[in-house]
Amino acid sequence: MSNIICLFQPSLAVELVLTELQKNQIEQNNLACFVLDPILSKPIMQSDEKMTKAEFGFIIATIFGVIGASVGFRLQLGPIVWGVCSSFVGFLIGFVIDYLIKIKGKNKPQSFVVISICCQKDQVPDVKSILTNYHVLGLTVIES
Question: pTM of the full predicted structure?
Fold first, then answer.
């Protein structure tokens, strides 16, 4: 006997896998499904992935400042005043864009479905091929 444990995202693929396995002589009492609830803690970020909220604002401020200073040579108050003013406007625009992107892009914690399959050793290759056809996230075979 072999136990196969696999990991899926909750979707229709889980139902299709279970139906396909039952068509291939794996009885329902040899299948077990478990839903892993998401953890509601903050994800751990690597130090190189961290980005302050103001960083995008500084990037846009630099771009706007250069353009404002260049255009300021032709305007009445001069390049310094226009460069500073356009940097301030660029920072505000960049900060607002970054804020809106982070609000829209907040990911909800993701849950997973674990399926445990108990089958004969000669059925393992067939079961593995079925699981890989339905985009399994992880798969392990435990021989007993």
Answer: 0.56
Residue 123, classed as helix, strand or coil, is: helix
Q: List C-alpha distances in Å: 98 to 15, 33, 60, 73, 84.
A: 39, 40, 11, 30, 21
Q: Is the dihedral of CA 132, 133, 135, 136 positive or negative?
A: negative
Domains of the chain: 2-37+111-143 (3.30.70.120), 53-104 (no CATH)
> What does DSSP say about strands 112-119 and 31-36: parallel, antiparallel, or unpaired?
antiparallel
Cα-to-chain-centroid distance, residue 12: 19
What is each CA distance from 116 to 20, 53, 98, 100, 125, in whole angstroms? 15, 43, 43, 41, 15
pLDDT band for position 79 (cuts 50, 70, 90): very high
Reported confidence tier of residue 36, pLDDT bands at 50, 70, 90: confident
Average pLDDT rounded to a whole number, residues 92-97: 90
